[in-house]
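Give me the fold.
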Amino acid sequence: MSAFSKRSALDGIPSLAKYVLLAGVALSVAGCSSLPFSDRFSGDDNETAEIEDVPDVPADKILNAGIRQMNLGDPKKAQKAFAEIEKQHPFSQEAQRSLVLSAFTHFEEGEYDETVAKATRFLQLYPGNKDSAYMQFLIAESYFNQVNNVSLDQSDTQKGIQAYEDLVRLYPDSEYTEASKRKLVFMKDQMAGKEMEIGRYYQERSQHLAAVNRFQTVAQSFQTTRHVEEALYRMTESYLALGVASEAQTAAALLGYNYPDSQWYRDAFGLLTGKNLQPEVNRSSRLTRFIPFVGDDDDGNRNTRRSSPSVNAVPASINADPIQAAAQSTRAPGLEEANVNSQVPAAAADAVDGAVDGASEAAASAAQSAVPGAADGEALPAAQAPVASAVEPEPEKKSGIRRFIPFVGDKKDDDI
C-alpha cells in the first residue's frame, strides 16, 4: 500500500515513554503502600467484586492497573481500566493520560475508528494540552493506514489529507510536522490518481465535459503531484473533442510552459498541429487563474504563444520536409514563432550551415534575416545548430596541397 510503515509514527514517542516510566515508578510505590488494592482488571471474579464494592478507587491506581495490562499484552483489559478512570475521575490528570493511552492502544490493535473517536475527544476536551499534536497525528495516521487502491473509495484519503493539513497548520513546530508533510505528498497523489481515473472513465465514454471537470480538479488542487501533466494533456483531448479549440490551445500551452520536456506536451503539440492549431494561451481562460504561466517577455508583456518541443519530440509528420526539419532544429528553446508550421526558406538552412562551419559573417547575417524572429537584428543563440543529415552538403573546398601546407611565397593563387 505504501512505503510507510503503519507504526513507524509510534517509534520513539516521548509521551508514551514517559507514561510507561511513570507507571513503573507508581507501581513501585503502590507495592510499598499499606493501602489494600486489588487489580480489578486481572480477571479474578472475587477481586473484581471486592473492588466494585469500593466505588472510589484512586485514579493513579487504576491508571497503573491499565498500564500493567498493556505491558502484559492484554489491551482489552487495559481499555477497561482507562474507561473506568473517565467514569470515576473525569477531571483528573489521570483521565487525560488515560485518553492518550486508550487512543494509542486502539491504534496498536488496528481499531482505527476507536482511535479517531478517542483522539478527537481528547482534542475537544484538552485543545491546549502538550499531547494534542500527538493525538492529531494519531487521527491522521488512522486514516493513512486505511488508504485503498485508487479504484476504490477514497473518503479516508480525503479525511487523512485534512487531518495532516490541520496538524501542519496548528502545530508547525511539532515533532510530527515533517512526517506529516511527507505523507501529505503521498495522500494527495492518491487523490489525484482517483480523479484521473474517473476523468478517463468519462472520456472513454465520450462524456468530455464531465471528464474536463475532473482533470481541472487535478490541475487546480493537486499541482504538486505527478498527474498534472497528464491532466493538461487530457484536457487538450477533451476540449478538442468538444470543439472548444481555444481552451485546448490554452491547456497545451500551459503544459508546454510548465513541462517543456514532457512526453505529454509532445503528444498535445501533435494533436493541435494535426488540426492546424498551435499551443496558445487564451488570457480569458479559467485555466490561467490557477495554473502557473511563465510566458512573459523581456518587456513584461505576456507572450501567449508556445513554441514547438525540441526537434526529437516533434511528431514525424511535422518534419516531413528536410529543410523544415533543419530550420526547426535551429530554434532555441525560448524562440517564439508566429506560425509553427511555416516553411523556412532554404537559404536560411544554408546560411546557418555556413555559420556553424566557420563561414563568412555575411552568411550568418543572412541566417538571422531569414529565420523568423531575427529580422529585427537580434543575434541567433549559439545553440541554433542544424541537423547535418537534413541540410545540403557544404560546397567542396579547393583541392591541392595548399589545404594542409602553408604557402608563403609571393605568387598569387592563379600563378600556382
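The CA atoms of residues 55 and 88 lie 8 Å apart.
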